[in-house]
Design a protein that fits this description.
Helix content is 43%, strand content 17%. The protein has 370 residues and is of the alpha/beta class. It has one domain: Luciferase-like domain (TIM Barrel, Alpha-Beta Barrel). The strands form two sheets. The protein has an eight-stranded parallel beta barrel with strand order 1-2-3-4-7-8-9-13, surrounded by eight helices.
Amino acid sequence: MSVRTTGIEIIGMISTTLASEIYGKSIITGAVDPRFIAEFARVHEDGGFDRVLVGYGSTGADGFVVTAHAAAATTRLGFLIAHRPGFVAPTLAARKAASLDHVTGGRIALHIITGGSDVEQQRDGDFLDHDARYRRTDEYLEVLRRTWTSERPFDFDGEFYRVRGAFSEVKPLQRPAIPIYFGGASGPALAVGARHCDVYALWGEPVAAIRQSIAEVRAAAPPGRTPRFSVSVRPILGATEDQAWDRARGILERILELRGGTKTPARPQSVGSQRLLDLAAQGEIHDKRLWTAIAAATGAAGSTTALVGTAEQVADALLDYYDAGAGTVLIRGFDPLQDAIEFGRDLVPLVRAGVERRKPRVVAAGSPAP
């Protein structure tokens, strides 16, 4: 497996064309530019990122196909494919993912997003309510993992899935199973994610709130399961702190212009988005530089809290999350391609150096301690 497994894991995000809030287009768009996908992936690989997230939306491009193309343009970069349970049978999804794992040389992981919007779900014909969707995800992940790991055919009888003699001859290259990342902030999400995931993904909140979420997931995990944790934020960098804030306010102005002014977005169904909006209502800046104004302006549609400052200041803030227990950070910019270049050049090396400074030094037997 060529994806980093020690230290801090740094994840970016690629899209199928240049898109973000400042371009008036969702990063999970339906426009597909194969050359852009390849370039965007190579920028992250050259910048020292470990993985990139490939998003999912009910109107967007297929993440498995996008990943296959991007992987062919890179040699080391890992891919985190957002995957929504319920629209492909878990046995088939297991074989698709295992096949892609071999084709990419063991460079994929799945990010399970159960879905927090009825509108999104119903576009694909799903009319289950929120809690039922998470019960389905629970079964889905059990069947998925058993398909990857079982050495003999198995049966499964659940509320949503029933199989007889399920088996896959193709097993993941990464043994025993492909890594599972999981997102969701509601009570049912926490219970299911803690039971199944390798990495529990959190959106950017104050460090104290991240510590609390980590503690809640750990408490909910069954014996023997020790999930890792990821925090997702949007860095906004400047040569000086003042320049970074000037840039941040310029981004906000552009977003408001594209959205037609300061009209308050409708409150979302997603519990994670609701948490970010509640945070924004408490104040625009939290900790030293966690900025919530863009979350408020967009209805917290996705990861929309920002860290604003110089590369050194933002690196310190990311390391605060690492110290709180998040061994993975997911960072993407508002000007996605150019920001990924800047992050790789200026931010990623500082974060890795900070983690290295935190590692205990190994002293050879008989040598004096430093």
